[in-house]
Design a protein that fits this description.
With 138 residues, the chain is mainly alpha-helical. It has one domain. It has a 3-stranded mixed beta sheet with strand order 1-3-2, sandwiched between helices. Strand 2 and strand 3 form a beta hairpin. Helix 1 runs antiparallel to helix 2 and helix 4 crosses helix 5. The longest helix is centred in the first third of the chain and has 18 residues. It starts with a helix and ends in a 6-residue tail after the last helix.
Length: 138
């Protein structure tokens, strides 16, 4: 699956959180560009604006379909993937959640399971559900 390979190529999960905020942002921007190329998406931009208030208001970010822009208000791999899920699959929260969780799980299975165990995700999706979901996973 090419999208999983791109995530692994850009993000070293054991090192990513040790980088500076600017380095993390740059990695997400490059990954975003590569995912857009993979899915042949043009004209969508990524705005990373660290903003605790907006983070609380949105749950971390949002995809504005009209402006064709993803906003991230905190550096978060899961939120980043979730908003890309909206970009690819539309308004459905369920599909965006499933897509982001599946990509994260396939890219970093041990980290995914650790985060689930520690309650670090807003939503918990069973491994059985992830196994069945394959929409828009290139």
């Amino acid at each position: 699956m090419k999208v999983v390979e791109l995530v692994r190529k850009h993000i070293d999960s054991s090192h990513f959180w040790k980088l500076s905020l600017e380095e993390q942002k740059e990695i997400l921007r490059r990954l975003f560009d590569d995912i857009c190329k993979l899915y042949e998406i043009q004209g969508v931009s990524l705005v990373i604006d660290i903003n605790p208030f907006m983070y609380q208001m949105t749950g971390g970010g949002c995809y504005d379909r009209v402006a064709r822009r993803i906003y991230l208000y905190k550096v978060s791999i899961m939120t980043f993937l979730h908003e890309i899920g909206h970009m690819l699959l539309g308004r459905s929260e369920r599909k965006a959640r499933m897509w982001s969780h599946k990509v994260f799980y396939l890219a970093f299975p041990a980290l995914y399971l650790k985060n689930v165990k520690e309650g670090r995700f807003f939503h918990v999706i069973t491994l059985e559900e992830l196994e069945r979901f394959d929409e828009c996973i290139k």
